UniProtKB/TrEMBL annotation, chain A:
Keywords: Amino-acid biosynthesis, Cytoplasm, Glutamine amidotransferase, Histidine biosynthesis, Hydrolase, Lyase. It catalyses: L-glutamine + H2O = L-glutamate + NH4(+); 5-[(5-phospho-1-deoxy-D-ribulos-1-ylimino)methylamino]-1-(5-phospho-beta-D-ribosyl)imidazole-4-carboxamide + L-glutamine = D-erythro-1-(imidazol-4-yl)glycerol 3-phosphate + 5-amino-1-(5-phospho-beta-D-ribosyl)imidazole-4-carboxamide + L-glutamate + H(+). This is Imidazole glycerol phosphate synthase subunit HisH. One of its GO terms (molecular function) is lyase activity. Heterodimer of HisH and HisF. The active site is at C81, H187, E189. Transmembrane segments: none annotated. Residues 5-193 form the Glutamine amidotransferase domain. The gene is hisH. GO terms for cellular component: cytoplasm. It is found in: Cytoplasm. Signal peptide: none annotated. CDD domains: GATase1_IGP_Synthase.
TrEMBL record, chain B:
Its main location: cytoplasm. GO terms for molecular function: imidazoleglycerol-phosphate synthase activity; lyase activity. Belongs to the HisA/HisF family. Its EC number is 4.3.2.10. Keywords: Amino-acid biosynthesis, Cytoplasm, Histidine biosynthesis, Lyase. It comes from Rhizocola hellebori. Pathway: Amino-acid biosynthesis; L-histidine biosynthesis; L-histidine from 5-phospho-alpha-D-ribose 1-diphosphate: step 5/9. This is Imidazole glycerol phosphate synthase subunit HisF. One of its GO terms (biological process) is L-histidine biosynthetic process.
């Protein structure tokens, strides 16, 4: 059975991620145990709240090197929401810049929109070559709740398959896939049937 | 494309059971919040809200079990409100499987609670509930105890303040319109929209599908209703159709 670890490095709703992944048929464990995080077939890094607080949680847990090593060895990691943001170079909140894990090029900045947080179901502009979005209809919507995001940039386009979404006039990175690393700004575990397709695709890629 | 207008059913839960009658077809147990949440998910609801009206510790314990079971089976966002008084109350609900937590009376008595929750979990977890009533002077005031008690707090200024303190969105409930089925209080929505940029969930007064689009045009981002959905007077699909006909984006 494919094993997945949901990394518990703070608080928040991890139950939905655990159950939504279990529905795909994976054996899912929510744990703080870094050895299990390193050895599982797939590692999910969740995260809600502030970028700086999540990075502090990752640092406290000592999880950064484990995540980086997995990605370097081609062993899948999925970052969700702020767990996706911390994979980028940096996060800028209220003028305070926090260093991220630097596994994807780009900075996380405040959404250039009036209605913030961006909260609700939005459409996705996913490229045909995306493995994560295979079988997701063109007009499908996923659930977002965030005030910060990465603006699409040439460096990222050069190394990753990038899916975007647009809130008001702000187009931002909704997902990115680079080798073993996949990140989703939205919540697949809260995106009903669309999220289930995406999680099933990801679990299907494990042990590939 | 734009973010879809959210349509949210609200269930009152007491000791783990749905309080108000629910008239939904093909339910094994119409009093089970978990089964109802799943039914609303299947019916196209964009989120589900539980309002815990239990007055006892045992009731709250039962509610946590309901939240756990719901989070395990329903994969749309879940908000849980009612009796949230501290950061640790929020922590317990989030760990049980809630995505957002409704905060109401406790924030009126201690506004720093909003800041404390936002700092710990992020603004996005806070749905600040406002039960608003019109005064004889034509102003809007904040009430508690189901609209029976005035808190001597002007509502529009309070809405602005909670947004500044870090609320992620506002659940704006008109106590005057609530139960009338005469439509939402559009002036109230417009007044709050003038002073905040965070999302507004309009509540109170919906009687038919055509009542919903004006609430969005007045400035709301989402609509919430209880009995009209539970009694099958209006379906989620009918509301979405009315929104779509009004040129508004919905998730279908």
């Amino acid at each position: 059975m494919t094993s997945v670890v949901v990394l518990d490095y703070g608080s928040g709703n991890l139950r939905s991620a655990e159950r939504a992944l279990a529905v795909t048929g994976a054996e899912v464990v929510v744990t703080t145990d870094l050895e299990r995080a390193a050895s599982a077939d797939g590692l999910v890094v969740p995260g809600v709240g502030a970028f700086a607080a999540c990075m502090a949680g990752i640092d406290r847990a000592g999880a950064g090197p484990v995540i980086a090593a997995r990605v370097a060895e081609g062993r899948p990691v999925l970052g969700i929401c702020v767990g996706a943001q911390i994979m980028f170079d940096s996060g800028d909140e209220h003028g305070v810049v926090t260093k991220g894990l630097g596994l994807l090029p780009g900075a996380v900045t405040r959404l250039a929109a009036t209605r913030v947080p961006h909260m609700g179901w939005n459409t996705l502009d996913h490229p045909a070559e995306s493995e994560l979005f295979e079988g997701v209809p063109a007009d499908a919507r996923a659930y977002f709740v965030h005030s910060y995001a990465v603006t699409p940039n040439a460096d990222l386009d050069g190394v990753a398959i990038v899916t975007t979404s647009t809130h008001e006039r702000a187009t931002f990175v909704a997902a990115a896939e680079r080798g073993a690393l996949a990140v989703a700004q939205f919540h697949p575990e809260k995106s009903a049937a669309v999220g289930a397709i995406i999680l099933k695709n990801w679990v299907g890629l494990l042990r590939g | 494309m734009a973010v879809a207008i959210r349509v949210i059913p609200c269930l009152d839960v007491d000791h783990g059971r749905v309080v108000k009658g629910v008239n939904f077809e093909n339910l094994r147990d119409a009093g089970d919040p978990v089964e109802l949440a799943a039914a609303y998910d299947a019916a196209g609801a964009d989120e589900v809200t539980f309002l815990d009206v239990s007055a006892s510790v045992e009731g709250r314990g039962t509610m946590l079990e309901v939240v756990r079971r719901t989070a395990e089976t329903v994969f749309i966002p879940l908000t849980v409100g009612g009796g949230v008084r501290s950061v640790s109350d929020v922590d317990v609900l989030l760990r049980a499987g809630a995505d957002k937590v409704g905060v109401n009376t406790a924030a009126i008595y201690d506004p720093s609670l909003i800041e404390d929750i936002a700092k710990r979990f992020g603004s996005q977890v806070i749905v600040l509930s406002l039960d608003v009533r019109r005064t004889v002077h034509g102003t809007f005031e904040v009430t508690t105890h189901g609209g029976r008690k005035s808190e001597g707090l002007e509502a529009i200024g309070w809405a602005k303040r909670v947004a500044e303190l870090g609320a992620g969105e506002i659940l704006l409930n008109s106590m005057d319109a609530d139960g009338t089925k005469a439509g939402f209080d559009l002036e109230l929505i417009a007044r709050v929209r003038e002073v905040v940029d965070i999302p507004i969930i309009a509540s109170g007064g919906a009687g038919k599908a055509e009542d919903f689009p004006p609430a969005i045009h007045a400035g709301a981002d989402a609509v919430l209703a209880a009995s009209v959905f539970h009694f099958g007077e209006v379906t989620i699909a009918e509301v979405k159709k009315a929104l779509l006909n009004a040129g508004l984006p919905v998730r279908v």
